[in-house]
Amino acid sequence: MHSRPAALALPSRLAALFPILFLGLVALLTASFIAPKAHAADATPATTHTLIIDTDPGADDVIALLFAMASPEQLKIQALTTVAGNVPLSKTSRNARLAREWAKRPDIAIYAGAPRPLLRTPIYAADIHGSEGITGVKVHEPSQPLAEGNAVDYLIRTLRAAPEKSVTLAMLGPETNLALALTQAPDITRGLRELVLMGGAHFNGGNITPTAEFNVFADPHAAEIVLKSGVPITMLPLDLTHKVLTSPERIAKLRGLGNQAGRTVADILDAYVQHDMQYYGLPGGPVHDATVVAYLLQPSLFKGRKVNVEVDSREGLGFGQTVVDWYGGLKKPANVNWIAEGDAQGFFDLLTQRISRLP
After folding, report:
1. Residue 271 burial by Cβ neighbours in a 10 Å radius (0-12, 13-18, 19+)
2. What is the pLDDT of residues 214-265, one digit of tens each?
3. Which residue, 33, 119, 160, 262, is most buried by CB atoms nearer than 10 A?
4. Residue 325's closest CA among 247, 249, 227, 180?
5. Cα angle at 214 between 334 and 292, to 5 degrees?
6. Sign of CA dihedral 252, 351, 289, 104
7. 12: CB partners within 8 A, 6+ apart
């Protein structure tokens, strides 16, 4: 009996395996067409924060608060602390309570803090935010009161008791509350994981003077103290926020969600963005403080650079300016992650998705 040549034996074995290989390939191709494709955001582990929000509502602050309170699985909000800024403290505190009421988050305590800056004469931004601090909607006195006690005392007590580097502090207004807390209790830096601030300007120029952004200008001495704290800091300045602009289509998507929160945010934005569109000649308006919340939820939407930042607190044309050593010419240690770019459509998609969760 003659054996087959080896050259003929190998193909015959492959032929025997062909039905099995073919069925496996069909199954693989079928699964790839049927299975839902994962989005890039789905593949990235969700960022979570134990969070305190320090705020001076303000129209864009209210939107930021609703955004944050709609994201409880990522943002474990311990409390809101309020400060004088866009309007006086009594109105910023009421507006924070309104946002809590609209979001149906009675579990979140709100503490009122500093009624004025550390040293400078108080200034407000009623020309932008309206006399009540919220544009486009009617305000009322919320039923749930403020928590007892002062915001500065709350920060000191909470950060001292917190595990090391465990609490993120989002700061949406003048930095007076934290500056007072740091002055009284420098040891509280131990409990802070990161500060994420809306404030400052470099390439963009200012929005209250040619060189200064409002939150820093409203209390530059407080900003100096915070920048020298040694805590990791991320700043979202006008350089970024003036690139993340509304459009009629983006506002219409919020209004079209069909819930009250979507209509409220759309009504606020329709009125709020008009000033900046006219003043700067922009096609849309920035939603400054809400970018802080988007950064906390999805930092991959943003790009920046670690740089040295100092505040000019001298009286004169540069008062309140954030001096950013973008190219490192001063050879000083970087103290800020300065965010200069962002995905505008990604921001509005995320904002719309989270606002859709609210009543």
Report:
1. middle
2. 999 999 999 999 999 999 999 999 999 999 999 999 999 999 999 999 999 9
3. 262
4. 227
5. 60
6. positive
7. 4
The pTM for the full model equals 0.87
How many angstroms separate the CA atoms of 197 and 184, rounded? Answer: 21
Please give the structure tokens belonging to residue 92: 């910023």
Q: Do the beta carbons of residue 218 and residue 126 sit within 8 Å? A: no
The full set of domain ranges for the chain reads 47-355
* Structure confidence by residue, pLDDT tens digits, 15-73: 444 444 444 443 433 333 333 333 333 345 688 999 999 999 999 999 999 999 999 99
Taking alpha carbons only, the member of 310, 311, 309, 290 closest to residue 301 is 290
* SS3 track for the chain: CCCCCHHHHHHHHHHHHHHHHHHHHHHHHHHHHHCCCCCHHHHCCCCCEEEEEEECCCHHHHHHHHHHHCCCCCEEEEEEEECCCCCCHHHHHHHHHHHHHHHCCCCCEEEECCCCCCCCCCCCCHHHHCCCCCCCCCCCCCCCCCCCCCHHHHHHHHHHHCCCCCEEEEECCCCHHHHHHHHHCHHHHHHEEEEEEECCCCCCCCCCCCCECHHHHHCHHHHHHHHCCCCCEEEECHHHHCCCECCHHHHHHHHCCCCHHHHHHHHHHHHHHHHHHHHHCCCCCECCCHHHHHHHHCHHHEEEEEEEEEECCCCCCCCCEEEEECCCCCCCCCCEEEEEEECHHHHHHHHHHHHCCCC
Distance CA 257, CA 353 (A): 9
Do 175 and 155 form a contact (C-beta atoms < 8 A)?
A: no
- For 47-355, CATH number? 3.90.245.10
